[in-house]
Amino acid sequence: MTNGAQNFFGLPFLSDLIAYQSYDTEGEFTGNLETEVLNAGDNTTLWGIDFYPQTAQPVFQTIEYDFLGVASNSLSLPGDTNFSPTNASEEPLIASVGTVTNIACYAKLAVTNGYPGVYGYLGQYFTNAYQIDGSGNVTTNLAGMLSPYGQFFATDPGQAALVTMPDPDTGVQGTGVVDVISLNVDANHDGTMDFSFTGPDYVSVDNPYHFWVNDDIDWGDTTGDGIPGQGSKGDGMMQVLISSQVPYQLIPSSYGVWAIHGTRDLVDFFPVYVNIGSLFLSNALSAGIDYADTNWQFVLSQGDSALRFAYTDLTPTNYMNYLLDTNEATTLADFPTTTSPRLTTVTSDGVALSGDFVANIATNNGGIILVEAWTNTTRPLVLTIYHGTNQIAQTSLSLSISEVEQMFRHKNIMLQPEAGMVPDRTNDDQVPNEPPTNDKNFIFLHGYNVNPDQARGWDSDIFKRLYWSGSHAKFYGVTWEAADSQKFGAVTINLQTNIVNAFNTAPLLNAFLNSLSGTNIVAAHSLGNMLVLSTLNDCSNQNINTYFMIDAAVAIEAIDTSADSTSDMYQSAWTSYNGNLWASDWYGLFPANDYRSTLTWGGRLTNFQNAAVYNFYSSGEEVLRDYPGDPPPSLYAIAVGQLVSLWEGDTGLYTWAWQEKLKGLMPANLLLSSDHGGWQLNEDYETNITIGGSPYWEPMSPAAAAALTTTQLQTNAFFNFASGSSVSFDNDLALETSSGSSYAQANRNRILSDAIPCLTLPVGANPVPRLVSSNRNFDEQVSFENGWPADRNSADIYGEAAAGEWHHSDVRAVAYTFTYKLFNEMVTIGKLQ
């Protein structure tokens, strides 16, 4: 054996064990098998059968720990045909939150007594995976679950340090970095994204993110009806036409782009955090990748091509600014400009994220996109990372997106069913995409001049806004008969009929509230409050825990007998007459056991039962605005005034005050008020005289009227219960007969609505005295405005500045960006989170 001989690895041969056996001339083996050791430098003539060389024991030195992805397409493992000793740790190793990634680690061992460049690889067992902080330090916080065999279940995005078991001889451990990525949403819509697997915002196939299709119509800051199911007209399906006059855009004027349709449209988008920032971190443990390296591609895809998104510069800590910051919201929705974002469709084939967006993730902690859905889908949003043509990693966001009405409940309590009305959705199986809820019920009732289809828009808008304010209550939209006599889907001319409808519907609302389990929080807008208050008073409902009156079209005296009357609610022709002559005070002429004593708005709705009642009113009201002096003297003047008001954007200006001060004076019960009772003087107390050859009716003097007895006024009121222009309500003269008590009992609510004026201001424009001490009056204009729309800075027809005025329906009409504080307040008070 030659001295200095070496094997394939460069280890010197020390000896050779030779196995041999004797054989005869015929070549047959004889005797026993024998062995002889041949040392280096020795010779032998033996004819061996087998040779067993002995080399020097290799001397290993660990030079590094190599971490490799078992499922990686880029590198093979030691022992594989394609493996090369020049391979080092694969970088980056990428895992996804909520999934198992198999990682292998080998100690790379240099053979110090062999040829240079010869290595051994010793597989390692693992201990734990720890989070790495922003400075590149390994913390003691676990980053997931790690088996000894390298099966890593990541629970937190960011950099994770996978640590091997100690070397039994030296105690040295290997540490490898895995970049954990995810797509995150604010699944519990509380305004904070939690990225962890165990947190409230984690979604999965079994627990997807619930959201709605953007299929209503919104425009600008204040335009839109909220009605879902608008088809090709819906925001998610309608492109925005861009004018060729827009600077730097050399495109035809008919060119259309997908865009955000104003700040009102923003509630129909949800923010997604592309959480891949750890890939670009460079520290002692990881070099990171270069965000400018175009060999790296980050591709979003969605199997149904149902999503579109806008890039933003928002971060995971300020992402809600798209809804809460007026500057951010206006910029995002300020189309068409060269700076406002266009929407990109996420196709099934995939779309690569822009280089600028990736750079913002790497350098400014960005990564927020705003996503809308234009159709139903349950397929996930998927992010795939490619290096060249190799797929390196993938993460996904599980989704459940449907029409918004599959996410909240509905109850129909219409007195007269109509064709095409939306059916009840009160059971779990009727709201298949309802987000997770708590034990609270939030019941919303719309106001006056809202037909069943328009009610769908109100319900949808209020649901969406409460959702973004963090509510987890079951939401019920209640449809009731509030648009009787509506014309052209725009103007309901007979308020009084719908007041009666509110009273008559109370038993139905009462039964519905009593059927619900859990805690009931009720909110009503405008005339819807008459219905809720009647339910409390006339049905003695005990199942309302908290009640929000929003812009309530109810006189303060009805709920608070301490409220003083105001001369602004008087007709000037009556101010010199004693109050007992007025229709509003006629009830006082009768004893308590006579039902005519109930014909007053004073105290009609004072019993709140067990409910904690809050008044959300606006000092900037237009519909419920105070109107000193007499209303316009003619139907023509009123109609013109209302049309001009509508043209100026102040729909229904002074409506409530006018209809109260015109009771008894409106010919033929047309438009707004009535022609009987109220302020109409009884002709029996007038004298026919002639002035200048023309007949003239002169009212009884105040002094003479003051001498009228109670009996006289009981049987012949100073005002006229009969219709002044028709016979429709002459039956009310029965009130002045011996059967007057029973007639009042049977017709009380209708008589109050059209024949008995209120003498106090409306709740929805003023604080209620009984709620002052408990701090339950909130001026929406003062307490809840977050800036105000630019298109509301004009003056109305009466010269009062409209800038900043919170109007009657602004709770829904104005974008959530400007009104979110009101919804936050309801969520906080009602404990709806």
How would you describe what is shown here?
It is a single chain. By secondary structure, this protein is of the alpha+beta class. The chain is built from 15 helices and 38 strands. The strands form 10 sheets. Strands 5, 8, 9, 12, 13, 19, 21, 22 and 24 form a 9-stranded mixed beta sheet that branches. The longest helix is centred in the middle third of the chain and has 21 residues, at 495-515. It starts with 12 loop residues before the first strand and ends with a helix. The model is unreliable at 244-254 and 643-650 (pLDDT under 50).
Uncertain runs with pLDDT below 50, 5 residues or more?
244-254, 643-650
Strand content: 15-25%
Helical content stands at: 10-25%
In angstroms, what is the radius of gyration?
41 Å
Indicate the structural class: alpha+beta
How many angstroms separate the termini? 85 Å
Tally the beta strands: 38
Task: State the major sheet.
Answer: 9 strands, mixed
Mean pLDDT: 90
Tell me, what's the shape?
Answer: rod-shaped
Number of helices: 15
